[in-house]
Design brief:
By secondary structure, the chain is of the alpha+beta class. The protein has a domain of 52 residues: Orthogonal Bundle (Arc Repressor Mutant, subunit A). The longest helix has 11 residues. The protein is globular.
């Protein structure tokens, strides 16, 4: 599966691109376990559960990531 192609196709049709936990972790460059820890602490990107399936909306993942932007490392 080509995630970027699927995202572009969703955007072209006007639907919101949704990602699985694995796809979200891959997109953010972290492990699924780290994403799970963030979710447990309430620190991660917004998510939804539909029919026991966890999903993230790409636009919300990007907004969450942008909100964590840093200009320098902590000392």
């Amino acid at each position: 599966m080509d995630m970027h192609r699927d995202i572009a196709a969703s955007a072209a049709t006007g639907s919101r691109a949704h990602l699985s936990a694995k796809e979200t972790a891959d997109f953010l460059g972290c492990s699924r376990r780290h994403l799970q820890r963030l979710r447990s602490r309430g620190d991660g990107p917004p998510f939804r559960i539909h029919s026991r399936t966890l999903c993230y909306y790409l636009d919300e993942v990007i907004a969450w990531s942008d909100s964590r932007r840093r200009t320098r490392a902590h000392a």
